[in-house]
Structure formats: structure tokens, C-alpha cells
Specification:
- About 70% of the residues lie in helices and about 0% in strands.
- With about 425 residues, it is mostly helical.
- The chain has a single domain, classed as Na+/H+ antiporter like fold.
- The chain is globular and about 60 Å long.
Length: about 425
């Protein structure tokens, strides 16, 4: 009898999680009417569960770094595969220049200003300021999924506007922020900044790891795509199932990390090149369940993470920064990213409204938590506690502000189109 009583919290936890996951089937029906994303109410479910003391295994972000890293790592790579599968290989370099403008212009400017704010306004030391800049630079591929491409693209029906640009940016920049995370880690272990071996840093952490991830991902995706094309049309539907997409996600990521390249880049590029077999005409394509299945897995993981993040907000994590940190977090979401994103879009043939929209939706989320956990696990940082509060506020502001506006903005451009 005592053993049964002791197991009650475990079963209660399972029941609550099952309830939370089941309501996701209904949430979009109502959130679409309210013109908000389903992420917003899920966040408040997490807060409610924590406040009424639901016996879930609430993580302590200060001590459960490994737990946080593994969970967020898995969610991000699944999301990167989803983004790659949706984009495919039917976009020209002229179209790819749009997201690369955000990478080459917006991202460096954004990081530079975050470093300045962190070091000179929030009084964080150099390595911690650089780590803050690196973890907040990428657009999150997970929580930004609501404003990204909805399905795999074909040359005769592809979307080339805001959704493609934001999807491609999120897929690319999650890997390209990694060199700066490693630079912050190296700096944290050095006596001075001048001690850093710059030749080794650029040759290994920048060139080898980026180029290696690109080549490996392209090879994995292209080879699998050729295997698909080798089979007859009636047999392709058995190969193009969701399980293989998940399997290739972990295979590509694991192999990339074994070879010391960037796994995030490898997974995204693998997803892109898997779709090389697709015909240009959507009507000639074999129907498959790769994207829907991966999206469902991603949604399952996101629901669980959002609930725990809502609980973490109530556990005191927001108290690790002061008013300056709160204002800085809000400025990053509402002012800095929109301005720098707009600057990057100036040469593009978009309307002024669309340029501002692309700049505005630099969603921050789960990827930032992964980078924070990874950096602290591998570095030797001091005075890093305030990062928990700043990063949490940035994600909170992003979830609420972008969650309340993204559907409305997409509807606006759809009607205008």
C-alpha cells in the first residue's frame, strides 16, 4: 500500500503531461481565431501547473545544465531537419541571398551591440558578454515555426517571401553562432584575450567545422535522395516516411559531432538535400509523411519544453537580473533586432512593411537555452548568473510579443497578396 502511495506523484505527472499534450490538438482551433500562436497559452499552462504544485520533475536551471542541454539539443536538431525538408533544393542563389543578408549583416551587428550592452551597461565581464551575444544572436528554428514555411516547396509553387527568408535564416544561423560560443569558452579559459590562438580558432572552429558540416550534410542528404530516386514511384511512399527523417536527423548530427564539425549545420543541410529527388512540379511529386511526422515530433517536444519553461519562470530564474537587464532584454526584442533586420533587407525587392516584418520576427527561444547550457558546461565562466535572468526575459518577451503578432502579420500579407 505504501509503495502505491509513493508512486502517486509519478502517475499524476504522467496524467498532467498527457493532458497538456492532448489539448494541443484543440488549441490551434481557438488560438487561430484569437490570431495568436498556441505557444502563448501553453506558457501559461506551465506557469499554472507550477503554481498549483503539480508534481512534475521541475528542473533547476542552475544545476541541471546537462539535462537542459540534452533536451534542447534534441528539440533543435529535429526543428532544423524540419526547416531543411521544407526548403529543399529548388531555391536559386538569388533567393538564398535574402536569408544570408540577415546572417552577414543583422547577426554581426546584433552581436556587437549585445556585447557592448552586456559589458558596458550591465557590467558583465568580457567572456560572459560574448557568450550572451552568441546565445541571443540566432533566430530560433523551434518557436519561430509558426511564421515559417508550412510545407515542402517545389519550384513551380515555392514561397519566396517572408516565410522562406525566416525559415532559411533560422536553419543557417543556429550553426553559425557556434564559433562565437566557442570563442567565449576559449576566452573564459584564458588569462587574457591576447592569449587566444587565432590561427587555430579560425582554421578549426570557423573554417573546418562550418565547411565540414556543410559538406557532410550535403553528402548524406544527396546520397539518400539518390537512393529514393532509384526506386519506382509506387515504392517511394514506403521509403519517404517520417521515421527515416528522424533517423537521418540523429545520424547526421551524431556523425557530424564525431567528426568534430557543426552538427546543427549538418542536420539542416541534410534536410535540404534529401529533397533533391523532388520534381519541380508539385503535382508530379509522390505524397509522403516526412514533414508532417517530423513536425508532430517537434510539436510534442516543444509542448513539454514550454510547460517546463513556464515553471522555471516562477521558480525564481527571473530574479537573476535587475531592471537594467529587463530593459535591455526588451530592447533586444523590440528595437535592436527589428532595426538591424530592416537594414539587412534594404537591398531586397520587398515592400517596406515586409522588410520591417522580417526584421521584427527574430524569434528567440530554445536554441538560446541550448547555447547557454553548452557554454557553461564547457567554459570556465565567472559572474554568469545574470545570464539566466536576461536570457529568460528575452525568451519570455519573444514568446509573448511574437506570439501575439505573428499570425496577424501573416494574415495581413496573405490578404494583401
Amino acid at each position: 500500500m505504501e509503495e502505491i502511495i509513493n508512486m502517486q506523484p509519478y502517475f499524476v505527472s504522467i496524467a498532467y503531461l498527457g493532458f497538456a499534450l492532448s489539448i494541443v490538438a484543440f488549441l490551434p482551433l481557438y488560438t487561430n481565431k484569437l490570431k495568436i500562436t498556441y505557444i502563448v497559452p501553453l506558457l501559461f499552462f506551465g506557469i499554472l501547473f507550477y503554481l498549483i504544485d503539480v508534481p512534475l520533475p521541475w528542473p533547476n536551471p542552475l544545476f541541471d545544465l546537462n539535462y537542459g542541454k540534452i533536451i534542447t539539443e534534441g528539440i533543435v536538431i529535429v526543428s532544423l531537419m524540419t526547416a531543411g525538408l521544407k526548403i529543399g533544393t529548388h531555391y536559386s542563389w538569388k533567393e538564398w541571398k535574402r536569408p544570408f543578408s540577415l546572417i552577414l549583416i543583422t547577426m554581426p551587428l546584433f552581436m556587437a551591440v549585445i556585447f557592448i550592452i552586456g559589458h558596458y551597461i550591465l557590467n558583465l565581464n568580457g567572456p560572459v558578454s560574448l557568450l550572451l551575444a552568441a546565445i541571443l544572436a540566432p533566430t530560433d528554428p523551434v518557436l519561430a515555426s509558426e511564421i515559417q514555411l508550412e510545407e515542402e516547396q517545389h519550384e513551380n509553387s515555392k514561397e519566396t517571401g517572408m516565410q522562406f527568408t525566416l525559415t532559411a535564416e533560422a536553419g543557417i544561423n543556429d550553426g553559425l553562432a557556434f564559433p562565437f560560443v566557442f570563442l567565449a569558452i576559449i576566452w573564459s579559459k584564458s588569462t587574457t584575450f591576447n592569449e587566444i590562438d587565432w590561427v587555430h580558432f579560425f582554421s578549426f572552429y570557423v573554417v573546418y567545422k562550418i565547411v565540414g558540416g556543410l559538406i557532410l550534410g550535403a553528402c548524406i542528404g544527396y546520397i539518400y535522395s539518390k537512393l529514393i530516386a532509384f526506386h519506382k514511384k509506387e515504392k517511394k511512399k514506403y521509403i519517404l516516411n517520417g521515421f527515416i527523417a528522424i533517423a537521418l536527423t540523429f545520424f547526421a548530427y551524431g556523425l557530424a559531432e564525431v567528426l568534430s564539425t557543426y552538427g546543427f549545420i549538418c542536420v539542416f543541410v541534410t534536410g535540404v538535400f534529401i529533397q533533391h529527388h523532388r520534381p519541380k512540379d508539385k503535382n508530379k511529386s509522390v505524397e509522403d509523411f516526412m514533414v508532417p511526422f517530423v513536425e508532430e515530433v517537434e510539436k510534442l517536444l516543444v509542448v513539454i519544453w514550454i510547460i517546463f519553461f513556464g515553471g522555471a519562470l516562477c521558480s525564481g530564474i527571473l530574479s537573476y537580473t535587475d531592471l537594467n537587464g529587463i530593459l535591455a532584454s526588451l530592447a533586444l526584442v523590440l528595437i535592436l533586432r527589428p532595426i538591424f533586420g530592416y537594414i539587412a533587407m534594404l537591398p531586397m525587392k520587398y515592400s517596406k512593411a515586409k522588410k520591417w516584418a522580417i526584421g521584427f520576427f527574430g524569434v528567440k527561444g530554445i536554441g538560446s537555452v541550448f547555447y547557454l547550457s553548452f557554454g557553461l558546461l564547457h567554459g570556465n565562466f565567472s559572474g554568469f548568473e545574470e545570464l539566466y535572468g536576461i536570457v529568460s526575459y528575452v525568451i519570455l518577451f519573444s514568446i509573448i510579443i511574437h506570439g501575439l503578432t505573428s499570425v496577424r502579420v501573416l494574415n495581413y500579407f496573405d490578404k494583401k497578396h
